[in-house]
Amino acid sequence: MGLGENPVALVVLPTAA
C-alpha cells in the first residue's frame, strides 16, 4: 500500500509504522 493510498488502512494496518 502507499502512504496516502488508504487513510483508513493506515489505522488498521499501519504500513508507515
SS strand fraction: under 5%
Order of helices and strands: H
How does the overall form come out from the CA principal axes?
flat
How many strand segments? 0
Q: For the report, how would you describe the main beta sheet?
A: none
Can you count the helices?
Answer: 1
Q: Catalogue the unreliable spans.
A: none
Account of the 3D structure:
It contains 1 helix and no strands. It has 17 residues and is mainly alpha-helical. The longest helix has 4 residues.
Task: List strands and helices in order, with pairings.
Blueprint: H1 9-12
Give a short summary of the structure.
With 17 residues, the protein is mainly alpha-helical. The chain has one helix and no strands. The mean pLDDT is 65.
